[in-house]
Amino acid sequence: MKRLLIFFLLALSGFLYDVKPVNLKQLQKETIQVNVTGEVKQEGEYELPVYAVVKDVLEMAEPTEDADLSTINPDQILHDRDCIVIMKKNEEAGKMISINQADIDELCKLPGIGKSTAEKIIEYRETNGYFQSLEDLMRVKGIGKAKFEKIKDLISL
Predict the structure, then answer these.
(1) Which residues touch 96 (CB under 8 Å, ≥6 apart)?
(2) What is the mean pLDDT of residues 97-123?
(3) Is position 15 within any domain?
(4) Among 96, 91, 113, which residue's Cα sits nearest to residue 104?
(5) Domain of 118: which CATH number?
(6) Which residues does residue 85 pair with via DSSP β-bridges, in sequence order?
(7) Average pLDDT of the residues of the chain
(8) Which residues contact 100 (CB under 8 A, 6 or more apart)?
């Protein structure tokens, strides 16, 4: 009897309210806003499609010749309201080794990194894509916390 009463009340409430299905397309954003400042020719806010990556907005903002892009991951997916600051090149940044760009010889310049470990870093990078953070380097076999602590101030993305 209770079930019949509940059913009747639900059916009656359906007739009293104008129930329309929700259109999820209307709720979903199709673009994102990203702000770019620093060493670029055209600072400002850019509107990009969802799932745009850093290199998409950099093409629009046009980095200057003094822009330090060594710490920028060009394939990183952007999110709405991200802010990208492009720093100016300096001597200290020039001495850093990019774990996303360096070849075997450059990686071997790091303390505690030999040819075998450098090859593993490159193999990891080719298999899994660019490192998203410096700490991701510890995912490479042979690089533990102690070795990472020795080189963390000498590396960049």
Answers:
(1) 70, 154, 155, 156
(2) 85
(3) no
(4) 113
(5) 1.10.150.320
(6) 37
(7) 84
(8) 73, 125, 130, 131, 157
